[in-house]
Design a protein that fits this description.
The complex is a heterodimer.
Chain A lengths: L2 H27 L7 H12 L2 H9 L3 H24 L11 E2 L2 E2 H19 L18 H26 L12 H6 L1
Helix pairs in contact in A: 1-3, 1-6, 2-4, 3-4, 4-5
Chain B lengths: L7 H6 L5 H18 L2 H23 L8
Classes of the chains: A mainly alpha, B mainly alpha.
Chain lengths: ~180, ~70
C-alpha cells in the first residue's frame, strides 16, 4: 500500500468517526435521548480514535499514530463492554432505545472491535511507512482536509452540548434534562 | 448585583465536576494541535487525555451495579 493510498484510507476513517458522532447526535436530538456518563465516555473515545489519522494525514503514516488509535479503541471497547454487562440481566430493558435490535453501547462495542481489527490490518502494510515525499502533500488534499475539520467541528460541538447537558456539575447517572437550560429557566 | 448562575464554591467541592465537558475539550484541543501544532505536544496531550479517560472510567466502574434479580 502506497503512502497516498494510506492517507486516503485515514481520511475515510475520519469520515467514519464523523458519521458515528453524527449518529449519536441524531439519537440525542431526534429521539430526545440524553447520553449517560458511560455513553459520553464512549463518544469521547470515538473522537480520540481520530487523533491518529489526523497525525497520519499531516506527518505521514507512522506506526506510533496507529498505536494511539489502537489504545483509544481498546479503552472504548472496555467502556462499552462494561455498559453491555450493566444491562445483560434477563428482563433488563437497557439504556435508551435500540437500533436494529441493538442498543447504542452494543453498536459502540462492535465499532471499537472493528476499529481494532482494521487498525491491526492496516499495520500489516509496511510500504506506507517508507519515505515518499513526492506522494505526500503536507495536508492530504481537500478530501482529507474536509474530513479533519468535520471531526474537529463535531468534537467542538460536543463540548458545548455536554456542558448544556451536565452543566457545571458531575453528569447525572440517568440524565433527563439539560442541566444548564434548567438552571437558566 | 445579581447572583451568578455559576456557583464556583459548590462546583469545586463536588466530585469530578464537568469531567466529560473537559474531556471533550481536551480531545478537541489535541486534534487541533495534531493538525496545526507540534507532533510531540499532540502525542503528550493525547496520552494525558487517554489517562484522564481511563481514570474517569475507573471512577464510574467502581459504582455499585444496580442489578434487579
Amino acid at each position: 500500500m502506497t503512502q497516498t493510498r494510506a492517507i486516503t484510507l485515514n481520511a475515510l476513517s475520519l469520515y467514519a468517526v464523523a458519521l458515528v458522532l453524527a449518529a449519536a447526535y441524531a439519537a440525542q436530538f431526534i429521539l430526545q435521548e440524553l447520553p449517560c456518563p458511560l455513553c459520553l465516555l464512549q463518544r469521547i473515545l470515538f473522537a480520540a480514535l481520530a487523533v491518529g489519522p489526523i497525525l497520519n494525514i499531516r506527518f505521514g503514516p507512522r506506526p506510533s499514530h496507529y498505536a494511539m488509535s489502537l489504545l483509544a479503541a481498546v479503552a472504548g471497547a472496555v467502556a462499552s463492554t462494561r455498559q453491555v454487562l450493566l444491562h445483560i440481566m434477563p428482563g433488563d430493558a437497557g439504556y435508551g432505545s435500540a437500533l436494529l435490535g441493538y442498543h447504542y453501547y452494543t453498536w459502540a462495542l462492535l465499532g471499537f472491535v472493528t476499529a481494532i481489527v482494521l487498525l491491526a490490518a492496516i499495520l500489516l502494510f509496511d510500504r506506507q511507512f517508507e519515505q515518499d515525499k513526492a506522494a505526500l502533500p503536507a495536508t492530504g488534499g481537500a478530501f482529507a482536509q474536509i474530513a479533519v475539520w468535520l471531526v474537529i467541528a463535531l468534537t467542538a460541538v460536543n463540548v458545548a452540548t455536554t456542558l448544556l447537558e451536565c452543566g457545571f456539575d458531575a453528569c447525572a447517572d440517568n440524565p433527563v434534562v439539560y442541566e444548564l437550560l434548567k438552571r437558566a429557566a | 448585583m445579581g447572583e451568578s448562575i455559576i456557583d464556583w464554591r459548590s462546583i469545586l467541592r463536588r466530585d469530578q465536576p464537568m469531567e466529560f465537558t473537559i474531556l471533550f475539550l481536551g480531545t478537541a484541543i489535541v486534534m487541533l494541535i495534531a493538525w496545526r501544532g507540534q507532533r510531540p505536544l499532540a502525542l503528550g496531550l493525547f496520552g494525558a487525555v487517554l489517562i484522564a479517560c481511563v481514570a474517569t472510567y475507573l471512577h464510574h466502574a467502581t459504582d455499585t451495579l444496580k442489578l434487579s434479580f
